């Protein structure tokens, strides 16, 4: 049956167009990539009842349920009501009746009100990983109500440590859990295990003083990974109780201008990170003159320029004493140039004796 479908409207509802006419893929949000296993039955029911029986773990850690016919979208949305209320409203304290800071009555049976702020992704963090410096999905749940629902687009990746398994360097906002270490020389046995760990897996800022048998540290280049703490057999290194974060800015993939993000904040506390992201809606609205379009955060930063971005995003934010802010940022993008006047290299072949 032929039918007119408003693709943009359906996409706003978190349904993505398929190459099969009339079929769509639902993107179920999972903030921080961590929810209770009981919700797998929700995914199974949608996939088997209205989809093609399959789902994909989306690159943004969503449950992507494929093969949903357009005419079945209202039924899927109605079924999603409990999931959205339990995950976004209750677990993340999201106000679904406010979109981009503006009152907008949410229809509980209408599914997601917007796809704008994409699902926050995270590695497993210190919930499980021995390298993790922070609980990544708990932070994601605190960020969620600051950016969702909104028609302004932003991608946020959270990594539990500077290993950056979750690729914080290639999204609009990358947040990396870091730690500041305290050295206890009275406990140090001078074994050099921390020095070797730093040399092998970090930034080589430690050295053993042969005269004193104690460790010296060049604090300028410490990335806060905590490898020294893990390596020390005598607990001469300990993590400070306060958790810190590095914020990476403006990275992106894509066909035209892919690039790696650059450091915006270093040694920021959780309160600072949340306060900065609390200004995202205001910044986006200013850049777009209150007329949102499908344009991701890194491009908005480019439009405004880093100086203006910094001014608006730090407005009203009280930085912790340790926090450092980049004076300026210069990104390096991949450039693609075509020159049709240049002839391709010729491939020469010399026949061998048997040819």
Automatic annotation (TrEMBL):
Molecular functions (GO terms): 4 iron, 4 sulfur cluster binding; heme binding; metal ion binding; sulfite reductase (ferredoxin) activity; sulfite reductase activity
SUPFAM superfamilies recorded: 4Fe-4S ferredoxins, Nitrite and sulphite reductase 4Fe-4S domain-like, Nitrite/Sulfite reductase N-terminal domain-like
CC per GO annotation: sulfite reductase complex (NADPH)
PROSITE patterns associated with the record: 4FE4S_FER_1, 4FE4S_FER_2
Keyword Metal-binding set for record: yes
BP GO annotations: sulfate assimilation
Coiled-coil region(s): none
InterPro entries, per database record: 4Fe4S_Fe-S-bd, 4Fe4S_Fe_S_CS, NiRdtase/SiRdtase_haem-b_fer, Nit/Sulf_reduc_fer-like_dom_sf, NO2/SO3_Rdtase_4Fe4S_dom, NO2/SO3_Rdtase_4Fe4S_prot, NO2/SO3_Rdtase_4Fe4S_sf, NO2/SO3_Rdtase_FeS/sirohaem_BS
The 4Fe-4S ferredoxin-type domain, residue ranges: 179-208, 213-242
Keywords: 4Fe-4S, Heme, Iron, Iron-sulfur, Metal-binding, Oxidoreductase
Pfam families: Fer4, NIR_SIR, NIR_SIR_ferr
Highest rank taxon of the organism: Bacteria
Family membership: Belongs to the nitrite and sulfite reductase 4Fe-4S domain family.
PANTHER family tied to this protein: ANAEROBIC SULFITE REDUCTASE SUBUNIT C (PTHR11493:SF54), SULFITE REDUCTASE [NADPH] SUBUNIT BETA-RELATED (PTHR11493)
Protein name: Sulfite reductase subunit C
Species of the source: Eisenbergiella massiliensis
């Amino acid at each position: 049956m032929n039918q007119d479908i408003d693709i943009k409207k359906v996409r706003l509802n978190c349904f993505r167009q398929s190459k099969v006419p009339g079929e769509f893929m639902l993107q179920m949000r999972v903030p921080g990539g961590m929810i209770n296993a009981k919700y797998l039955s929700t995914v199974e029911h949608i996939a088997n009842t209205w989809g093609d029986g399959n789902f994909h773990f989306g690159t943004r850690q969503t449950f992507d349920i494929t093969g949903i016919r357009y005419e079945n979208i209202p039924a899927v949305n109605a079924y999603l009501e409990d999931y959205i209320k339990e995950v976004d409203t209750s677990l993340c304290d999201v106000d679904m009746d406010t979109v981009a800071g503006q009152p907008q009555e949410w229809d509980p049976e209408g599914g997601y009100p917007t796809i704008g702020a994409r699902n926050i992704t995270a590695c497993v963090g210190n919930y499980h990983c021995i390298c993790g410096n922070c609980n990544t999905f708990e932070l994601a749940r605190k960020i969620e109500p600051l950016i969702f629902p909104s028609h302004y687009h932003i991608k946020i990746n959270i990594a539990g440590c500077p290993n950056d398994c979750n690729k914080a360097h290639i999204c609009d906002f990358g947040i990396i859990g870091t730690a500041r270490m305290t050295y206890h020389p009275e406990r140090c046995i001078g074994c050099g295990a921390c020095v070797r760990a730093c040399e092998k897996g970090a930034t080589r800022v430690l050295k053993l003083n042969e005269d004193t048998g104690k460790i010296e540290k060049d604090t300028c280049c410490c990335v806060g990974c905590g490898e020294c703490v893990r390596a020390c057999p005598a607990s001469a290194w300990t993590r400070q109780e306060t958790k810190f974060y590095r914020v990476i800015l403006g990275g992106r993939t894509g066909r035209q201008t892919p690039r790696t993000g650059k450091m915006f904040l270093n040694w920021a506390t959780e309160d600072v990170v949340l306060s900065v992201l609390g200004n995202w809606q205001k910044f986006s609205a200013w850049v777009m003159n209150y007329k949102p379009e499908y344009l991701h955060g890194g491009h908005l930063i480019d439009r405004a320029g880093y100086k203006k971005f910094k001014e608006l995003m730090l407005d009203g934010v009280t930085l912790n004493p340790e926090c450092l802010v980049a004076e300026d940022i210069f990104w390096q993008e991949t450039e693609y140039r075509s020159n049709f006047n240049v002839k391709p290299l010729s491939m020469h072949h010399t026949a061998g004796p048997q040819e």
